[in-house]
Structures are given as structure tokens and as C-alpha cells.
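sorry for the late reply, my laptop died twice this morning and i had to redo everyting from scratch. anyway the thing you sent over, i finally got around to it. pasting the sequence first so we're on the same page, its 490 residues, then the predicted structure underneath. double check i copied it right bc i was rushing
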Amino acid sequence: MSQKKGTMILKDKKVTVVGLARSGAGAARLLSLLGAAVTVTDTRPESELTDLVKGLDSSVKRALGGHPEEIFTTADLIVVSPGVPLEIKPIASAKAKGITVIGELELAYQMVKSFLPGIQGAGIPFLAVTGSNGKSTTTTLLDHMMKKGGFTTVLAGNIGNALTEEISKILTNGVRGTGRGEGSSPDFIVVEVSSFQLEAIDSFRPHIASLLNITPDHLDRYHSMKEYSDAKANIFMKQLRSDFLVLNADDPAVMELHALHFRLGNPDMPQVCFFSRMREVEGIYCKNGTLYSSLSGVSPAEYLMNADEIRIKGVHNLENAMAASAMALLANCPREAVIESMKEFGGLEHRLEMVRELEGVKYVNDSKGTNVGAVVKSLESFSEPLILIAGGRDKAGDFSVLRDPVSRKVKAVLLIGEASRKINDALADVTETVMAKDLAEAVSLSRQMAKRGDVVLLSPACASFDMFRDYEDRGRQFKKMVMELTNDNA
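ok and here's the structure:
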């Protein structure tokens, strides 16, 4: 396993991995594979981490149930999982001693550059997507486009499978597929990245990046929206003029970042193109129900397809499709593959997912709507009267932002979880609000309240951890409850 000169050498280095979720476990396995002396630490006891611990190499040391400071201050390197705040005391102590602290994404990126040379040794290009909402859909659709265009890709990151885990698989077994990189390396790495991951990068440089949107989220972790936006902006901070950045021209916070960082015309910054559903831009835009491409200043703009041919519905999915299209075309994916992918791709579980229609009432699972901005976009996707199920663990969201769309779209809100009182205070005077003791009662009440032609929408605007393992668990329980509803006319 050869390594490029000047890259990170890990053999026999003492590395502490902080946080043993999927990212931490993936990082520990990759580090072990590369010969590092690895210690994993998590505040949770081993009894809560059985499955993750089981998959670790026997050489990996464990410090579970707390964070002993000595494993931080004596390490050569610290790798932090996205869910762990960088401000915790042991990490601060290590930084004070000059110990390098990076995130799992940065580790994966550096190992790709060290061990996976890509086409003709030029390195494997990263296609990276971030934003408050729509990341997983855009990233998955982009990967679908690239594969359909004949490329071999690895899909990983915040989408659910750790990039370090995928790198370990490639180093061990190579990569299979029909693309140009079969045998040793993929043609592209397609990665969804979160603000948490972007906090702890150093050299991470995607060849093509997209910033979909910025709306208030994770303000239980960030001290301000500026701090959150700055974390998102890290996705393009290491890009060069030979790289590309795809931005949402309709999102004020995104355009504010663009004005801040590109106003001086820095020649080292990436080439920027846009997507918009409201106006003509240099990039991908929608006009009179039709998608056009004017990438690289092509004039006149090239017709792509009618917007109603895109299989995934909703205004936010139109934006996601345009972002993915821009990235794929910039990566030289054939136009036909991009268009066919938009016609084929059916969307992801828990994102405006149709569960069933019962006696003229549609039940929709949008459990991934974990912040206020996501719910606003989801509400705007419906013309039918809505019964909204919302609530969970508050992430310091401003629920007053929901007042206008709820007053226009929602006939009743059923509230669950820790944030139910706060949401009720924000919305009770604009629509009917009902407090439910749990999701099961909310589903039962929605069955009683809904009339033919209505839509019952689970879109919580909150995290799930007060009542569920994660948003996926919440969504699947909702679907199970909905499928168990009986037909009164049967």
C-alpha cells in the first residue's frame, strides 16, 4: 500500500477517536488498517455500544463511559466524530498542547489523497453537497446521475455510511463497477457533508461543491446563525480556480456568503455557477415550467426538460434536482444521463414519502423535516388542506417562521414531544392546535380529523431524540401506525 510523499503517516502513531457512532467506528477501522495505535472514547458505556464495539479490530483500545483526559493529551492525532462539539474540555486541552485535531471527513479526504491516486494519478475528485435541507436527496440523485453516465462512484458521508468505512473497503477489496476506475479507485467520490463535519476540516477540497440553502438549524450547538453559516462556507474555502461551486441564487443567506467571499474577485476562488427556480442565471434555472442550462455562459441557454417530468415533486425537490444537474454536468456527465435520472429517481425514505391513501386522505412521511426551514419548503409543496404532525426535541428553532405558511396551508397542527408547548405558543392563534401525548395518539387524532382531499403530513421541525432513536425510527413508526389504520368502509 504505497503512500505519497508529504502525506500523513499513521503507522504506529497514537490516535484517539472521539465518539463511537458510525463515523467514529469507520475512522477507527481505517486507522487500524493503516497501522495506527487506536483508542476510541465515548461518553456512553460499552453496554450501549455493543454493535459498534463488536466491529472493531481487537487491537483498538476502549475508553468508554467518559473521556479520560490523558488519552487526549498524549495522542499524536485526535479524530473527532461529527456529533462531538470541538469545545469539550479534553479536546481544548489537547489543542493547547499543539496536538492536531481533525474530523472524520478530513481523515478520509487525506487518506484518499494518500492512497487512492485516481485517474492517471491526478487524485479522485470529490463532489460534495451541503446545506440545511435537501442534502441527502441531492447527493443521492447526483450519484444516480454519475453512475448512469458510466462513472464508478462511492457514495458516502452524512448520508448514513461513513466515508472512512468506504475507504477501508476500497483499500482492502478495490472497487467494482463499469466506470473508468474499476479495479483500484472510483472515478468520483460523492459525499454529503454536514456543518458538523465542516467544522473540523483542514485541507478538504472538493472539485465540485454545492451549497443548497442556509436556514436556522442546530442552534442548540451554534452560538449564532453567523457561526452556523461560517461552518457551511468551509465547503469552498480550500477550492481553487480549477474547481466549481454551485450556489442557490434564491437563498438570501447563501447569496450573502457569496457576496462576502467573492466580492473582491480573488483569483484563487472557485468558478461559481447558480441554480434558480425564480430567475435566469448562469447555471441551471427554471422558467415557465421548463429547465434550462446556461453553464459556462452558453447562450442561448440549452433546453433540458419540462419541470413536471421530474419524478420527485415539491419546490424543494425542484431545487435539489437543479443543483444535482449542475454538479453532474460540470463533472462531464452526459446530458442524456442527467435528464433520464431526473425522470427515474423516486426520492428517499422519510422525505415527503407517500405512505398511503385511505378514504381519500393522503398520509405523507417527512420525518427528515427536522428544522423549521425544511417544514416551510414541505408545506409549500402541497395545494391540499393539511393536518400537520410536528414536535420533538427543539434545536433552538424559531417556530414563528411557520406562522405564515401554516395560516395559509394547515387546518390543524397535532403536537408531540418536548417542543410541543413552544410550537403551540407560536401557532395557536393562526390555526387549530392539539396536544397529543405521543405519535400514536397524533396519528389516531389525524384519522378522526381528516376529510377526503386532506393530507396528513408528519414534518416535525424538530429532532427525534426525545421519543425515538433517530428520524428514521420516527418515520418508520409513523408508517407502521398509518398502515395499521383501518378502512371504515371496508
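The domain at 14-98 is CATH 3.40.50.720 (Rossmann fold).
thats about all i looked at so far, will dig more tmrw
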